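Box S1 | Example of a co-folding query
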Amino acid sequence: WHLARALPFINDGQIVKWFGTNTDINEQKEMQRQKDEFLGIASHELKTPVTSIKAYAQVLGAMLSQEGEDKKAAMVMKMDAQLNRLTNLIGDLLDVTKINSGKILFNKVWFNLNEVIHDVVLDLQHTANRHILVMDFGETGDIYSDKERIGQVLTNLVTNAIKYSPHANRVIISTRREDDRVTVSVQDFGIGIPEDKKDKVFEQFYRVSGTKQHTFPGLGLGLYISNEIIRREGGRMWVNSIEGKGSTFCFSIPATLKS
Ligand code: ADP
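Box S1 (continued) | Returned holo structure for adenosine-5'-diphosphate
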């Protein structure tokens, strides 16, 4: 898009002509707005019934367990696990809507970064089948940030590290503090990312297609959301990767001293 094409033609201070590009941009903006509005309404409408089904599934599971119907209870537990996946997908769609409309809120508090990362990693270790999540922590001290959102970013990175390294059995999560910043990195030994796709993976809905042997499920939103969260926390996110060898996703955020 060429800036000069949209500039008005000035004659004696009068606008005599305004070229078409401006209209195209307005149309694009309107289409984007309608898309965001649809995404917002659809994800909100999906959330309500899913929340309700989940509540019923949990009650049903508990009832079946009490009655000694273990097989049936196990099936309901599987339903519940799938409902969690659905809830997370809907949560991602809602987050994208919030980010795109500038309505994402941050609830900042002081907390010890290593403690929060440790808890999130332990939680994820329960659901990881073959991968061992190795923690390599340097002293981070306290940071002033949104605990939940930082946990969400880490969950996204570790879940991806596991998902995109189906033949590896290790993911390394490291933290470091340098002067006024803390850096967190998540290293995997998986499929890696082709050089020309490295920047694109942070775009919304962008996915590198799977390998011949594997297809990987997903919407292509986790990294977009994570990057936007970190940007809004005053930090930045990047990736080092070698195709076929593995990737290291890192983010750094300011760690201002407590006053
Ligand atoms: P999703 O995993 O749902 O597709 P993400 O936004 O988390 O969405 O990631 C976008 C894309 O970036 C993925 O589809 C995948 O191609 C690539 N990607 C993300 N993390 C990794 C990783 N650890 N290793 C290799 N590729 C990755």
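The chain has a mean pLDDT of 90. Residues 156, 160-161, 164, 188, 190-193, 201, 206-208, 218-224, 247 surround adenosine-5'-diphosphate (CB under 6 Å).
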